[in-house]
Amino acid sequence: EEFEQTFKVYDENATFQYFKSFRRARVNYSSPLFSANARIDLHEAFVCGQRIKCFFFQPITIPKDTDDPHLKLPAPHKQFLISPPASPPVDWEQTLESRPVINYDLIQAIAQLAPGEAHEIHPQSKDQPGIIVHICEDPEGYQSPGKPCIQQTKCPERNT
């Protein structure tokens, strides 16, 4: 009650949110002017026997221009960022990395492979053998051979 009255001096319509696990409280004022006055007067002040610190928080506004409530994806040039060094040297600046190289020909060739068919990878020539891949279908699926059995061995005798 004493805590709330201290802040309601600046705005009777102030609302409070208590975060007990963080030992924090959030005071919402109806005007930025009220919150500025409270921040100036009450920062480092003693309230309920404790010194308090006051901070501003910017209101979070979600644009209503779209019907999609989800966040937008980040720009693609930052999706494969390499971290800077732990202690960057003087005048170090981060450079934009090049986009990842995607070999679409390789992806298309892999997609066309089908079980039971032979695929010629490298044609035979006079000096080189041909390379033909036969894709096998395993009807039972891959099964792990299981845990290997380790034989118990006798501990060597110790000479003390």
From TrEMBL:
Belongs to the RCAN family. This is Calcipressin-1. GO terms for molecular function: calcium-dependent protein serine/threonine phosphatase regulator activity; nucleic acid binding. GO terms for cellular component: cytoplasm; nucleus. InterPro entries: Calcipressin (IPR006931), Nucleotide-bd_a/b_plait_sf (IPR012677), RBD_domain_sf (IPR035979). It comes from Dreissena polymorpha. SUPFAM superfamilies: RNA-binding domain, RBD. One of its GO terms (biological process) is calcium-mediated signaling.
